[in-house]
Description:
The chain is an alpha+beta fold. Strands 3-9-10-16-13-12-11 form a 7-stranded mixed beta sheet, with helices on both faces. Strands 20-19-21-22-23 form a 5-stranded mixed beta sheet, with helices on both faces. The protein has a 3-stranded antiparallel beta sheet with strand order 5-4-6. The protein contains 15 helices and 23 strands. The chain is globular, with a radius of gyration of 26 Å. The protein has 2 domains: 2-64 and 165-335, 2-Layer Sandwich (BirA Bifunctional Protein, domain 2); 362-455, Anticodon-binding domain (Rossmann fold). The structure holds glycyl-adenosine-5'-phosphate (GAP).
Amino acid sequence: MEKIISLCKRRGFVFASSEIYGGFQAVYDYGPYGVLLANNIKQAWWQAMVQAREDIVGLDSSIFMHPKIWEASGHISGFSDPLSECKNCHTRSRVDHLLEEVNVFADEKMSEDEVNKIFDEHKSKIKCPSCGKSDFSEAKKFNLLVKSNLGNFTGDPMENPSYLRGETCQGIYVNYKNVVDSTRVKMPFGIAQIGKAFRNEITARQFIFRTREFEQMEMQYLTHPDNEMKEYEKLKVDRFDYYINNLGINKDNLRWHEHENLVFYAKAAFDIEYKFPFGFKELEGVHARSNYDLTQHAKFSGKDLEYKDPQTGEKYLPHIIESSVGVGRTMLAVLTDAFVEEELGPEDTRIVMKFNKKLAPIKVAVFPLLKNKPELVSKAREVFDMLKLKYMCEFDDNGNIGKRYRRQDEIGTPYCLTVDFDTLEDGCVTIRDRDTMKQERIKIAELTSFLAKELE
Ligand code: GAP
């Protein structure tokens, strides 16, 4: 993990937020290559989820919504984690995470008293993750919703707060009728959305795995009640395959985890887990949520949210299955999966990020062999200009070629092109493959078709 964090900082993937002010806990910024990687991850998701599917449409709902939405969804009363403080070093930890360390699993719907009961039974065996002592305070439940004073200009701004959304899917539920009324979707169909979510996470270690501000990619699929579980099984297969086929993740690093303690309305809940450097942990949640969400919103809004089948006239509240995953969490999985340290010889190693080519932040790097030879620089610029609008390219004339290759390896650039003196004679450049390090000559005139074949 330390090696990945260090590469992310050194090569401009991820920076701690507000670093010059000492950082801001559990919030991160994406640097120049991080933003490209995140965009490629979102694009791959959108392509698979919306573009490739006739039965799924997109949405972009706002971060702020009517506060009643969070009452209806149960987030105001129930969206909380149990917290305990180490009496020795004052580190606060999530009690469910502490219990997991001794293979005891707390249920998220347990009351504070119930959590304290099992915590009391086991806490003597549990050590504080910071200081190693075993002296904990009572567990207290702590709500994760982030409050704001948006639109509140009187009195205590935290009275009658509005909330930054805790999950993006609520914006989908409350817009589902608008989508039905304004498009040609027919049951079953899905609504997909990518957007920011905010949670006052208690323990926010593990880099970008769990952050307080993060982006979710969520798809909610609406079905007739009778078809919920059939569609759920299909979605599970699609989502697992997506990581292998679309993102190129090693299948040995993925597995299913079934939730044993289901919230009362859920029919089934499985996580796709990825083998992060700190072990197998949740990457994505795939849930069958029944008609709970729409029932709640119908009740709290007083609006009829039933779907009327245009063919049969049957009216019903759709059941919903969802796929939900974080952009940052996918990025950490992709970074972990791509990170390779290769021994090239005695005392010679290289770090190479073997990203799936579709996800690589920079697709092609163009080098003039020598910086001080204007004819090489201008030819290299010509090649760069020819490719730059089609692919994210980088021009680099700094340092020797070996160093330039290593830099591109560390950011995972699939191809490096070098313009040398022969180029001026034969119209060819040297193309170097990131993974095999093989170098070949290729005609400049053939570059676009070669790259189209390899990168698209
Ligand atoms: N709508 C369902 C939902 O939000 P969740 O299990 O709370 O379910 C779904 O979150 C996914 O969102 C997780 O699997 C993870 O990928 C991502 N996620 C949740 N909380 C996160 C956090 N604090 N930081 C980064 N990603 C997070």
